[in-house]
Every structure is written in structure tokens, then in C-alpha cells.
């Protein structure tokens, strides 16, 4: 089956969520994104710009471990790098605000055709 081409972030995000079905994978994304945010804040507050060099290690390191060892799929960032980056932060927000279960259910309906 040919891979679908997404034309907007709004179309892409539900797909992104379906690529993160495993709670451990999502948890690793959450940890990595949290560290990325912490590093960015620390770099700015301390004016230690070298801390920014660790941003890709933290962000991608945790996420890719989640995909390769738990989710067992190819990270969406390989095909959609900018939308995947944005989706990491949106998913982080949805986890913090408790919206993720609803968003996952909606994404499964939209992308996988699952019933509630």
C-alpha cells in the first residue's frame, strides 16, 4: 500500500498518534521532549549555548529507542521531520493536559477506521 501524503499538520497529527500506540514509546517521547524543553530553558537562562548541542540527542535518542524497541516502527520524523517535531510538542501538551486518551481514540477512528 502506498504511503499517504499529508498536506497539513491537522491531517498529519492523527497519523502521528497512531504511530505511537505503545505507552512506553509515548512515555519515552514525553521524557525526551521534557528534557529538550529543560535544556532550551537552561541554555537561555544560563547563557550556556553548548547545552543546545544536547537537544537532538535528548529528543531523538529517547524517541528512537521508543520506536525501535517498543513500537517497532520507523519514526515518522524520517518522512515528515518538521511535522513530527511539532507533533512531539503537541503530544507532550496533550499528555500534560489529560487530552491524550481522547485524541488517540479520535486518531484511531480517523486513520485506522476503528470504532469507539
What is the global morphology?
A: elongated
| Total domain count | 1
Number of strand elements: 0
- The assigned structural class equals mainly alpha
Oligomeric state of the chains present here: single chain
The fraction of residues in strands falls at: under 5%
| Number of distinct helices | 5
Average predicted confidence as pLDDT: 94
Helix and strand pattern: HHHHH
Query: N- to C-terminal separation?
Result: 25 Å
Q: Please mark out the parts with pLDDT under 50 across 5 or more consecutive residues, or reply none.
A: none
Rg computed from alpha carbons, rounded to a whole number of angstroms:
15 Å
List the helices and strands and how they pair.
Layout: H1 9-18, H2 23-46, H3 55-71, H4 81-96, H5 100-112
Helix pairs in contact: 1-4, 1-5, 2-3, 2-4
List keywords for this structure.
116 residues, mainly alpha, 0% strand, elongated
Amino acid at each position: 500500500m502506498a504511503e499517504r501524503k499529508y498536506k497539513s499538520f491537522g491531517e498529519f497529527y492523527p497519523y502521528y498518534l497512531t504511530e505511537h500506540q505503545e505507552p512506553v514509546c509515548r512515555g519515552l517521547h514525553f521524557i525526551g521532549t521534557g528534557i529538550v524543553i529543560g535544556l532550551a530553558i537552561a541554555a537561555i537562562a544560563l547563557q550556556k549555548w553548548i547545552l543546545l548541542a544536547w537537544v537532538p540527542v535528548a529528543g531523538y535518542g529517547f524517541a528512537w529507542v521508543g520506536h525501535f524497541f517498543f513500537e517497532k516502527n520507523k519514526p515518522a520524523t524520517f518522512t515528515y521531520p518538521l511535522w513530527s517535531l511539532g507533533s512531539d510538542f503537541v503530544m507532550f501538551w496533550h499528555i500534560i493536559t489529560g487530552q491524550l486518551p481522547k485524541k488517540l481514540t479520535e486518531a484511531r477512528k480517523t486513520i485506522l477506521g476503528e470504532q469507539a
